[in-house]
Specification:
alpha/beta; 7-stranded mixed β-sheet; 4-stranded antiparallel β-sheet; globular
Length: 277
């Protein structure tokens, strides 16, 4: 035994810090599906539907709606008599509700497709109009995803084809808050009590706003709770206009309400219409 030689000292193994899970804009929407129509009927309602219907009626031809969800806009669009309306959404639970709504409406020439708006599975020039209501493009949290989607939309439209989109207004001006009661009411035939507790967080560096949702149904020990987070990226009207121009569009209108009034930074509604060059 060589007492003059020290044994090698091995450093203690250290555990690598856990990486934060990658946030994706589609996260949370499966969980939101059972509550989406209930909440929107009490907040957003159908205020935007007539605007998109007028646009489609004036245009005619085949229409694609990005992020069609439960068919809240898709089904009324189909009632305009458009040649064909196609909706695409990534969320299976959202689409399931949309297909139920479609069956009840008994409308022909409507298709709901499950897919990712970043990878649109349609032929070039196959639509005359593409719509992106309700801030759906802000669920694209990385610049590359937005750029790729705009290019894909441009490929779907012929020269002169129209792209209409809406942004969530003033995301940077949302104030952070915790566990605020945003809505109370009842739903379903049984009139079950339901409460929405909402928190808002922001990541200014990445330009992200997080809406932490907690829906509580019932009372006392029988109450059930559903928690999830929806994430939106801040994109202003001028920023989106510049991206549209770069993707091959000419911006033809920037609107601040659903009656066609002009946009300014204080408007509650942010809509852009663009024509494929």
């Amino acid at each position: 035994m060589d007492v003059g030689r020290r044994p090698a000292v091995r450093p203690k193994a250290t555990r690598a810090p856990a990486r934060e899970p990658r946030v994706e804009g589609h996260h949370g929407w499966d969980d939101y599906a059972p509550f989406y129509d209930w909440e929107n009927a009490r907040t957003f309602g159908r205020r935007d539907v007539a605007f998109w219907q007028r646009l489609v009626t004036a245009r005619g031809g085949r229409v694609l709606e990005l992020g069609c969800g439960t068919g809240r806009v898709t089904v009324p669009l189909a009632r305009t008599g458009a040649a064909e309306v196609v909706g695409i959404d990534r969320s299976g639970p959202m689409l399931s509700r949309g297909k139920t709504r479609l069956r009840r409406a008994r409308l022909p020439k409507v298709a709901l497709v499950r897919g990712d708006i970043r990878h649109l599975p349609f032929a070039r020039g196959s639509f005359g109009t593409v719509l992106a209501p309700y801030g759906v493009l802000q669920s694209l949290l990385r610049e590359k995803d937005l750029v790729d989607t705009l290019k894909a939309v441009a490929d779907l439209l012929p020269r002169g084809g129209v792209f209409g989109l809406e942004l969530v207004a003033d995301l940077p001006d949302w104030r952070e808050y915790q566990k605020r009661v945003s809505l109370k009411g009842r739903r379903g035939r049984a009139g079950t009590p339901i409460t929405l507790l909402e928190s808002v967080r922001q990541d200014a560096k990445r330009g992200l706003t997080f809406f932490d949702q907690e829906f509580i149904e019932g009372r006392g020990r029988q109450a059930t709770r559903k928690q999830f987070t929806l994430t939106f990226r801040t994109v202003s009207v001028p920023q989106m206009a510049a991206r549209l121009e770069k993707a091959g569009f000419e911006v033809t209108a920037m609107l601040g309400d659903y009656r066609g009034g002009p946009w300014d930074s204080r408007a509650e509604v942010w809509i852009l219409l663009a024509s494929r060059r």
